[in-house]
């Protein structure tokens, strides 16, 4: 079961980790300035030209990173082929669901604005 | 050499193996990664709710007030802190920084101690 | 001294068990192997491998008080009693402390542990500058004892597909050799989710190498060489 090869997945995990690091630090630095964060300010941030894409990018990187990471764990501990495919499928569905939900929420706010 | 007659036994009792500090930091990195993965759907749901309506936004904000959610938040804060610190350690070691045994041991020890401290900091900061 | 040793007899077919021993070290007994040799006089059914008794042949690797090491290089001084001896973790046990190394050597073979060079043969030998020779330090000294691979969690989970620290150190030994011209093919072979990329940089391998080598460092260099090549 090859599943996304060696080096490519490794590089995706390192690059997404770097991106996550930067974005999480950015978020932690930015949030105190926005506080006290109320509903309308938060919507303006998430629907904004900068905030929206950044949140989308954050979750995109998160899902790519988590997929490779969880794949590695599955390849280590789950040996039977069927079980592997089932769990990998579940992980993929969960992550796609997360991504879809976040993108939908962001689109909803952006469209309302 | 003859083929072994049947399945040979294998010694692999993890409780009887003495793990170096680096292995402990590594398994904690894995556990924290899984915890964060489990938290992702919840995070997405919270994001969705917080953007949906004023009332949902308020209930998301008020979430941290119950003791149970505080424990969950504490565990997740540790997971994030440990995972990020161990991740930075990984990225540095990948390019050859601190990958000699002595320094790798020292940094493993450091992140194992620093992660709970950072988690506490995160929690206090999140509550304020 | 007190010892507690893993016993398994394939003829009897009973599950493995631990057996306690008491043995008196004599003057001049410095290493764990000295003690084991005395034990063997006491109980000639006890099986373990050994040959050189000085850390060169790599045959007496075992799990000593929870860590892998060579009995002939492990000082008796400072060993906690009872000294618990078990076979190398994750390896099929043939008898007592003797394990089946077939798969381990198959991985070694798979990395083609010999110099490959298609250029015409020189008059005498293929020369190397002292700097080129130095690049092999920390690599050529490996005695294939398997202490590292048998302490690597990634190897425990995928012993049939992950080459393991020992084989990867050897692979890098040939990639780093200026006289070898097959680096590109060697790297192609290693770029695989299983063969190379099961390693999680746990460094258990480097922790236990009785020759003081660092397979994790060799793996880091292979990954960087792959990265350099594709960028
Ligand atoms: C918050 C969401 C995150 C999730 C769900 C997540 C999940 C995971 C998982 C499941 C693994 C596999 C662990 C293993 O193989 O043992 C992993 C590995 C890794 N993570 Fe994360 N991670 C997250 C954030 C981060 C961040 C912010 C960094 C930044 C430094 C990071 C750096 C790494 C690195 C470097 C690895 C590779 C470790 C290895 O190859 O053994 N992660 N992550
Ligand atoms: S790298 Fe060290 S532990 Fe591993 S086989 Fe070689 S000598 Fe033994
Ligand atoms: S560094 Fe890699 S090869 Fe060495 S013990 Fe860890 S996972 Fe195994
Ligand atoms: S007996 Fe040869 S390495 Fe120990």
TrEMBL record, chain A:
GO cellular component, one term: plasma membrane
TM ranges: 44-64, 85-112
Signal peptide: none
Keywords, comma-separated and alphabetical: Cell inner membrane, Cell membrane, Electron transport, Heme, Iron, Membrane, Metal-binding, Transmembrane, Transmembrane helix, Transport, Tricarboxylic acid cycle
Location in the cell: Cell inner membrane
UniProt cross-references to InterPro entries, sorted A to Z: SQR/QFR_C/D (IPR034804), Succ_DH_anchor (IPR014312), SuccDH_FuR_B_TM-su (IPR000701)
Cofactor(s) demanded: heme
A Pfam family recorded for this sequence: Sdh_cyt
GO MF terms, alphabetically ordered: electron transfer activity; heme binding; metal ion binding
Function: Membrane-anchoring subunit of succinate dehydrogenase (SDH).
Protein name listed in UniProt: Succinate dehydrogenase hydrophobic membrane anchor subunit
Taxon lineage: Bacteria, Pseudomonadati, Pseudomonadota, Betaproteobacteria, Rhodocyclales
From TrEMBL, chain B:
Domain of life assignment: Bacteria
Keywords carried by this UniProt record: Heme, Iron, Membrane, Metal-binding, Transmembrane, Transmembrane helix
UniProt topology in membrane: Multi-pass membrane protein
Annotated positions binding heme: 83
KW Iron (keyword) present: yes
Subcellular localization, as worded in the UniProt entry: Membrane
Matching Pfam families: Sdh_cyt
GO CC terms, sorted: plasma membrane
Keyword Transmembrane helix listed: yes
Co-factor binding details: The heme is bound between the two transmembrane subunits.
Entry-linked InterPro entries: SQR/QFR_C/D, Succ_DH_cyt_bsu_CS, Succ_DH_cytb556, SuccDH_FuR_B_TM-su
MF terms (GO), sorted A to Z: electron transfer activity; metal ion binding
CDD domains per UniProt: SQR_TypeC_SdhC
The protein's required cofactors: heme
GO biological process, one term: tricarboxylic acid cycle
Subunit structure: Part of an enzyme complex containing four subunits: a flavoprotein, an iron-sulfur protein, plus two membrane-anchoring proteins, SdhC and SdhD. The complex can form homotrimers.
Family named by the database record: Belongs to the cytochrome b560 family.
Annotated function: Membrane-anchoring subunit of succinate dehydrogenase (SDH).
PANTHER family, A to Z: SUCCINATE DEHYDROGENASE CYTOCHROME B560 SUBUNIT, SUCCINATE DEHYDROGENASE CYTOCHROME B560 SUBUNIT, MITOCHONDRIAL
Protein name: Succinate dehydrogenase cytochrome b556 subunit
The species this protein was found in: Thauera aminoaromatica S2
Automatic annotation (TrEMBL), chain C:
GO MF, any single term: electron transfer activity
Protein's GO biological process: respiratory electron transport chain; tricarboxylic acid cycle
Pathway(s) served: Carbohydrate metabolism; tricarboxylic acid cycle; fumarate from succinate (bacterial route): step 1/1
2Fe-2S ferredoxin-type domain ranges (all copies): 1-91
EC number: 1.3.5.1
Details of cofactor binding: Binds 1 [4Fe-4S] cluster. Binds 1 [3Fe-4S] cluster.
Record has Transport as a keyword: yes
Co-factor requirement: [4Fe-4S] cluster; [3Fe-4S] cluster; [2Fe-2S] cluster
Domain 4Fe-4S ferredoxin-type: from-to ranges: 132-162
Family, per entry: Belongs to the succinate dehydrogenase/fumarate reductase iron-sulfur protein family.
Protein name: Succinate dehydrogenase iron-sulfur subunit
Organism of derivation: Thauera aminoaromatica
Organism taxonomic ancestry: Bacteria, Pseudomonadati, Pseudomonadota, Betaproteobacteria, Rhodocyclales
